[in-house]
Amino acid sequence: LMPAVETLLKNKDFILIYPEEQMWYNYRKPRPLKTGAYHLAAKFNVPVIPCFTEIRTRKDYDEDGFKKLKFILHIMKPIYPDPEKTLKQNKEEMQKKDYDAKVKAYEEAYGKKLEYTFEKEDIAGFE
Q1: Which of 27, 42, 51, 82 is the most core-located residue (most Cβ within 10 A)?
Q2: Strands (E), the chain
Q3: What whole-number percentage of the chain has pLDDT above 70?
Q4: Which position has the higher pLDDT, 114 or 1?
Q5: Residue 92: phi, psi to the nearest 5?
Q6: Which value, in Å, is the radius of gyration of the alpha carbons in the chain?
Q7: Are 23 and 9 in contact (CB under 8 A)?
Q8: 127 confidence band (pLDDT: 50, 70, 90)
Q9: CA-CA distance, 58 to 92, in Å (whole number)?
Q10: Per-residue confidence at 21, pLDDT binned at 50, 70, 90?
Q11: Residue among 71, 17, 27, 21 nearest 49 (CA)
Q12: To which H or E segment does residue 108 belong?
């Protein structure tokens, strides 16, 4: 896998990485991030593009009787590694900046502060 990732990134191709435990089915809140994607970005000196998926519940229903959902993808400014910092420093800083961007997008999208207490609205379509 690593040689393929290195080849793609050196060719300035894009790769899509879903950080471990980041995606929970229809879960609205950003999850704490793992460092793997940031390690690769820092190692190969490429940016990470923060993304956040806002999930809105529509008023209409699907054929199974569940409310339909609308997904809105928020793409934020790229986060670049700092050539003056170590690999460890870069991956940790990039991870923090990405998480902070996701939290900001969540709070702007839903108009409330991010808290990790469970509410039924946290799962889209569960309301």
Answers
A1: 42
A2: 51-61, 67-75
A3: 95
A4: 114
A5: -70, -40
A6: 17
A7: no
A8: low
A9: 37
A10: low
A11: 17
A12: helix 87-110
Q: Residue 87: what residue type? A: L
Cβ distance 24 to 122 under 8 Å? Answer: no
Structure token digits, residue 36: 């793997």
**β-bridge mates for residue 53, sequence order:** 73
On whether the CB atoms of residues 76 and 105 are closer than 8 A, the answer is yes
**Which of 48, 47, 70, 66 has the alpha carbon at shortest distance from 57?**
70
Structural tokens at position 69: 């959902």
**Which amino acid is located at 102 in the chain?**
K
The dihedral of CA 39, 49, 95, 72: what is its sign?
negative
Count Cβ neighbours within 10 Å for each residue of 92-124 and write b for 16 or more, e otherwise.
Answer: bbbbebbbebbebbbeebeeeeeeeeeeeeebb
Residues 47-102 pLDDT 10s: 999 999 999 999 999 888 888 999 999 999 999 999 999 999 999 999 999 999 99
E strands, 43-126, are 51-61, 67-75
pLDDT at 32: 86
